């Protein structure tokens, strides 16, 4: 797995869009192999084995694994172990690649690479929740907020919202970073913009409902049925203290706000928040989700 990751990392740091696309597909293929069951089709003969860096989902006709199965999966355990170290953390590398893509000329091909990066990033944050800690840093949170600017296409805005939700999920320090960087103003401004498509506005409204959910402390950094120490948080705390001159406590501090406090903050930018909270409490659309 280290060899595949090393190859993918080399590709996504390239200025060649073809190599970037290849690297993102290699990461996507690795995630697919972890999340999908073994195909029931006839195995390939030794002379016709496919490259392990790519996967053909249509030919393999694999089915998603149950969430409870991942903890016992050796590939997932190895992936999780590697992600807990800063050197092999894929989410960080994909986020850096995304940042470089935003600095490149805007065109349809670049937009597709951005969408691919966001798709990979969402999967990585779901498979390895401790990686969400990177979005407690302003440079990475600002990356997602930049993607919500009106000049981006609706597909990128929608994909960025999904990654934003995943980055904030059960991670209160990231929510505080989002608030401190005027994330609420960014989201509500896009919602009020007449040029914003209806599809994106629906997703923005869903995000507002998600934001108003009660918050919970950060869960254990270990994967199900594993005992992997979370070194990623320590690495970011050390880097944060080096840059800012403090002890990095700002990254690790858990500051939970009540629903009423968040309601008051949101009301600065959006009217009729009380009705949204009432609807949220009555309909309970996210009964199994805590912000």
TrEMBL record:
<dbReference type="Pfam" id="PF08045">
    <property type="entry name" value="CDC14"/>
</dbReference>
<protein>
    <recommendedName>
        <fullName>Cell division control protein 14</fullName>
    </recommendedName>
</protein>
<feature type="compositionally biased region" description="Polar residues">
    <location>
        <begin position="38"/>
        <end position="64"/>
    </location>
</feature>
<dbReference type="InterPro" id="IPR012535">
    <property type="entry name" value="Cell_div_Cdc14"/>
</dbReference>
<dbReference type="InterPro" id="IPR016024">
    <property type="entry name" value="ARM-type_fold"/>
</dbReference>
<feature type="region of interest" description="Disordered">
    <location>
        <begin position="38"/>
        <end position="65"/>
    </location>
</feature>
């Amino acid at each position: 797995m280290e060899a595949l990751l090393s190859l993918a990392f080399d590709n996504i740091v390239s200025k060649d869009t073809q190599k970037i696309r290849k690297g993102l597909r290699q990461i996507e293929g690795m995630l697919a192999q972890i999340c999908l069951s073994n195909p029931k089709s006839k195995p390939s003969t030794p002379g016709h084995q496919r490259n392990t860096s790519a996967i053909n989902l249509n030919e393999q006709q694999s089915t998603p694994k149950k969430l409870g199965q991942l903890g016992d999966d050796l590939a997932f355990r190895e992936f999780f172990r590697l992600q807990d170290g800063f050197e092999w953390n894929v989410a960080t590398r994909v986020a850096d690649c995304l940042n470089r893509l935003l600095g490149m000329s805007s065109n349809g091909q670049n937009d597709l690479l951005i969408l691919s990066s966001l798709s990979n990033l969402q999967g990585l944050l779901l498979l390895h929740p401790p990686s969400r800690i990177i979005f407690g840093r302003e440079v990475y949170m600002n990356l997602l907020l930049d993607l919500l600017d009106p000049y981006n296409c609706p597909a990128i805005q929608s994909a960025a919202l999904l990654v934003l939700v995943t980055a904030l999920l059960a991670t209160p320090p990231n929510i505080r970073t989002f608030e401190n960087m005027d994330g609420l103003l960014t989201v509500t401004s896009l919602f009020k913009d007449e040029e914003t498509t209806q599809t994106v506005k629906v997703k923005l409204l869903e995000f507002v409902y998600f934001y108003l959910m009660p918050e919970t402390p950060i869960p254990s950094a270990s994967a199900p049925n594993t005992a992997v120490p979370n070194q990623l948080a320590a690495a970011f705390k050390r880097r944060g203290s080096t840059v800012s001159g403090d002890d990095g406590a700002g990254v690790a501090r858990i500051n939970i706000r009540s629903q009423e406090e968040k309601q008051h903050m949101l009301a600065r930018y959006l009217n009729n928040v009380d009705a949204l909270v009432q609807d949220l409490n009555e309909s309970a659309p996210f009964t199994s989700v805590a912000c």
